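Record 1 of the preview.
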Amino acid sequence: MEIAIRPRLDRADVEAVVRGALGADLEFTAHEEFTDGFFNAAHALQIADGPHVVVKVAPDKDLKLLRYEVDLMATEIECFERGLAAGVPMPKLHHADPEGGVMIIDRLDGVSLPNAKERIPEADRLALRREIGAAAARYATVTGERFGYPRKDGRTGADTWSASFQMMIDDVLADIAEHGSPLPRPAEEIRALVAAERDLLDEVTRPALVHFDLWDGNVFVRQGENGWGLEAFIDGERAFYGDPIAELVSLALGPEDERAAVVEGFLGREMTAGEERRLALYRIYLMLILIAECDVRGFDAETTEHQITSATKALVANLEALES
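->
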């Protein structure tokens, strides 16, 4: 699918990026463009007598983006560097240029989880989900200086989680108002529902690293001698410092038994009532992002309708859950 903000690069462009970063004399034997992402350009290059790498290039800084999307390449690089240092399985980082909006990582050997599901025996399914949850929990061992997005201008940065999260909600509601995207409830009602949970949010006192985009497409697995296992997580551009429970918004989807297995791996226990309530807040935030981004991404009419419809349904359900 064509995405309006995604950079358009050909093979020569990508080779020039890699030569500039890793060596002017490099030669390449294969190239592949990945077109399923909605933000960065992503291309794979096989370096002759070298690694198979993926090159990610951020959209032009002059393009109109959502308010949270400023410095996303710098955010992803920070997520990679700090996640790898904490033992999170992620591709090796060969080159990082946050100012230039470029990163080069290893290409993984495995496949994304949606492309492997039909081949994974049912007996291995829950064990794999527990492994994924336990590995994702390592992100939360990383502590930020403040809550919020790790961007240069400090926007959404705060000393309390409630203050930071309220700014994140305010920003995405401003994006929606600016673009005229439809909401099932007035923005002020949504803002007030979040503000009413200030004390609950401030039970979170440490700004933990949260990837916040660990849906199955960003989880790579591979088959080994002992069955299927996790290889690595990718795509950390939505990362922020906040409540570790927010990781479960994308991580714990799917059938109830798989959700329970992920939570068991992630927390080592069941969620508390307060954590379930905070999770509803973070689902609301993600659904607002999904509604807001349709116009900015330049989706076609069918994709826009599908995404807004599904996000709105989930938004309504979680707003009602808070009110009940």
